[in-house]
Amino acid sequence: MVLAVTSEGFLIDNVAVHPARRGTGFGRALLEFAEAEARRSGFDSIYLFTHEKMTENLALYSRMGYVEYDRRSKLNFSLVYMRKLLS
To answer: Which of 36, 51, 52, 81 has its CA 20 to 30 Å from the CA of residue 71?
Structure first.
């Protein structure tokens, strides 16, 4: 997992789970850790992006309360940007 602070806020820049650990709640735990770090750092929201074809990622992020707020193209990739309010 890579976390960063950008001009848009607190970013989950990269998160990955080994294929053998998928479906075990490890990804959810990583996201919850990132959200706690964002809160600890004084942020009231957190954002991330993923390729539009990563439907499993998009579904997980939606289930966890992330909402799409933008779509952008970067190096021929179509990216979906999602944000979650940390209340």
So the answer is: 36
The DSSP bridge partners found for residue 57 are none
Say whether domain 2-85 belongs to CATH 3.90.1150.10.
no
Domain limits, the chain = 2-85
pTM of the entire predicted model: 0.91
